[in-house]
Design a protein that fits this description.
This protein is mostly helical. The chain is 71% helix and 0% strand. The radius of gyration is 29 Å and the shape is globular.
């Protein structure tokens, strides 16, 4: 497991307004900056042990260098991830000896716990807790927060650390982060009443905080009562400007703060954020609405759609970064991260789709969605059984046969693939995009199986209706020597 400890270059150089207790790279004295740059080079070369010794030296003199501490933790995780062995309890004894020094010498404790425990056991629970307490005593809240974040990463099944981190965020009025943490707790344990209450409180506060706007805004006077807000929302949504939607959010946010168990308000908030294309905020409210609705299938589908959209955007952004920065010193690391992200994304989408099918086994549309995810991930054999079941649905039948044909083709069962395409084509009288796609796929298989004349006939039907469709013009004209 890899800790999410890497900071961006901008964060490392300029900690930002939350970083009054944090020193950035540019604020390091020259001698420490040189050591850090050596450590950075060692990290790029995956010389984890050497990087750790350099970073420990930097942090001993400048403990507020949070980016360096995050790099140190990453190096420790990498250095120890393939080492297996039995812990003999020595770390616990070391931590116990240090605990008595937290108030007297918190910075000394931070340096000692990093070197003597976390260097060899980066997710040690007692050491992580001690780092948190020492950072609080040293008035270094950003470092304290990092200690708790690392504990949740290393112990994802321990609710204690999530509660502690969520409370930490609430105390610092970081409501969006608190909402995310308590939301994870409610997903893991619906009976956790404390987490549920704090999740609702944090989500409401995050919504209100995010909607702060100019007190002279033209819309504020229009929203003095709920009747005006209702009228505004009843307008044609397609014609609502971003300012109108923001105004709507302010009123809905106030209603939500009064009663965050109001399903209708929660759904309207989610819908408004979706219209603004603020997908993360929309997802948060749709997830809570789904919980309040006792698992409404339509809301479940909304949640799944938005999760997929957000996940794809993240991988798309990473792909764009890689394409635009081919000479970046860590480009291979980013490529690896992209491949891992895509794999994890596919597995998550399949897992969620499978759960929806398990809950509604007779819903053929859900079966088709699952098959589509399996097909995209290259699991053709697994997709077939769900497609065969979904084929019974008249509204899905043609799409199902198209995908079934492609599955059979990828599995090397060409005769069944051709049969599916022929059956689907025979049921379509109009030459629309669906029929063109079927004919094209059929032509490809005919080519693959050496049936050139039949392939040409498939392409010619498309050519006669749509000259510009894919590369059919080139294929047809080439066969005539044009």
């Amino acid at each position: 497991m890899e800790t999410n400890s890497m900071s961006t270059a901008a964060e490392a150089e300029n900690p930002g307004e939350d970083g009054s207790d944090v020193v950035g790279v540019n604020q390091l004295p020259d001698n420490l900056k040189k050591l850090y740059l050596k450590a950075e080079s060692a990290l790029e070369l995956r010389n984890w042990g050497y990087a750790m010794s350099l970073l420990q030296a930097v942090l001993k003199q400048e403990p507020k260098f949070l980016h360096g501490r995050k790099q140190l933790r990453l190096a420790s995780v990498k250095e120890n991830e393939n080492k297996k062995g039995v812990k003999l309890g020595g770390e616990a004894l070391k931590v116990m000896k240090m605990q008595g020094q937290v108030k007297k010498d918190p910075l000394g404790v931070i340096a000692a716990v990093e070197k003597d425990v976390l260097a060899t056991d980066p997710y040690n629970a007692q050491a992580g807790q001690l780092l948190y307490e020492a950072a609080v005593a040293a008035e270094m809240p950003m470092t304290a927060g990092f200690a708790l974040e690392t504990l949740t990463q290393g112990h994802p099944d321990n609710p204690k650390f999530y509660h502690q981190l969520g409370d930490f965020y609430l105390d610092r009025k970081k409501f969006a982060e608190a909402s995310e943490i308590f939301g994870k707790l409610t997903e893991k344990d619906r009976s956790d009443i404390v987490a549920t209450k704090k999740y609702k409180e944090a989500t409401a506060q995050a919504s209100i905080t995010s909607q702060k706007w100019d007190a002279d805004g033209d819309w504020r006077d229009l929203l003095k009562d709920k009747d005006t807000a209702a009228n505004l929302e009843a307008d044609n949504k397609a014609g609502m400007t971003p300012e109108m939607l923001r105004a709507q959010l302010e009123v809905l946010g106030a209603e939500y703060a009064e009663d965050n168990n109001n399903l209708d308000v929660c759904k309207r908030l989610a819908d408004t954020y979706e219209q603004l294309e603020e997908w993360e905020s929309a997802l948060g409210y749709y997830e809570w609405a789904f919980h309040l609705s006792a698992n409404d299938p339509s809301l479940e589908k909304k949640v799944a759609t938005l999760r997929e959209r957000i996940s794809k955007k993240q991988t798309h952004d990473l792909e764009a970064f890689i394409a635009e920065n081919p000479e970046h010193p860590e480009i291979e690391t980013y490529k690896t991260q992209l491949a891992e992200a895509k794999k994890a994304q596919a597995e998550t989408l399949i897992d969620e789709a499978q759960k929806r099918v398990d809950r509604n086994p007779t819903d053929n549309e859900l079966r088709f969605e699952l098959a589509d995810k399996l097909f995209t991930a290259g699991h053709y054999k697994d997709a077939v059984k769900h497609l065969q079941a979904a084929k019974r649905s008249p509204s899905l039948r043609i799409k199902v046969m198209n995908m079934l044909g492609q599955c059979y083709d990828n599995m090397g069962i060409s005769d069944l693939a051709i049969q599916q395409f022929e059956e689907a084509i025979a049921e379509l009288s109009v030459m629309d995009d669906t029929k063109k796609d079927l004919l094209y796929n059929q032509g490809l298989i005919f080519e693959k199986t050496g049936q050139e004349d039949k392939a040409l006939e498939s392409y010619k039907q498309i050519y006669a209706a749509d000259y510009d469709y894919r590369d059919v013009a080139e294929r047809v004209e080439k066969s005539y020597g044009v």
